[in-house]
Amino acid sequence: MRVLIAPDCFTGTLTAEQAAVAIADGWRDGAPHDVLTLRPLSDGGPGFLDVLSDALAGEVIVVPVSDPLGRTVPATVLLVAEGGRRTAYVESAQACGLHLLLPEERDPAHTTTTGVGEMVAAAVDAGATRVVVGLGGSATNDAGAGLLSALGAGPPERLGRGGLALADVTVHDVAGLPAVLDRLRGVELVVATDVDNPLLGLDGATATYAAQKGAGPETAQTLEGSIGHLVDVVARVHAPATDLLTGRPRRVEREPGAGAAGGLGWALMLLGGHRVSGVATVLEAVGFADLLASHDIVVTGEGRLDWNSLRGKVVSGVAEAALGAAVPTVVIAGQVLVGRRETMAAGLSGTYAVAATAEELDASLLDPVGALRARTRRVAATWSPGGGA
In 10 A of CB 293, how many CB atoms? Predict the structure, then answer.
């Protein structure tokens, strides 16, 4: 049997590549005669550049950028010649990712996306006329104000100090926005994300994601107000375009994906960016449809299979593509938190948890590679005709 192994990262424990290797080793243990192909994936979050660098022939440049707290960290930009123009791929998590901070440093009231703006600027300076920015896994909730500052929209001491500091910004602090728009004229900005949240409101960036980044209820409420104030100020400097369908001003903050990465999606859309599915972007880049055509089964996975997994994440993207190719999809996840009815409706043929109890979860975290390998061995013995041989 020909097996395509295509997992996402297991957040906090394994990269997508490490997960793919562990799954492959476990499958060989359970079905040694099967032929395996490893293709780690990403939905725009951590690992986005690693996956694309392996799949696309291009030049990788190293750029020193600011991390969420303003410290210098190395980041990379992938430059690829595509269709007669130069495309740059940027992974926002390399500059503003939650993994860059210690647990005690996580505070979205003060973290910034400045480093992402520095990467975008480096991409444009390198001659890119198309910049694809992968969003996901951020430690920030500043509506991309840091990014805007790094590109020249306003002073970093006003825009680059995190979401809480946005409560008192004025039109003078974003006076450079027209110049940024002019600088990016002729550059296509693509916002590759796995979420469709708007910027504000009950489904917005703060309400949905600020808590997992370290914000308490009071801080989250203050952040929501600060970001709302920034939106109002920006509207006075840069009048929104007219929606061709409704004839009304386009409310970028309400666009699906504007709330991605703590509102970084909003800032990129404000600069003319358009949103695409992060996982669809990756699947196309790696030639996933062709891979499916030559395999009998696809095995994917992630740290926690939940409702979000079925909405624009790697698992749902793989399942949709595989269903169209009549190839069964099996998921091996650290935890499975959705029922069989829901996973079958999403096109998944089987779901398997590494850990089903709190005790098993604690044990798996001590040896994530070994735990994933052991669970995969049992799955392979079930699915492969030669399993257990």
Answer: 10
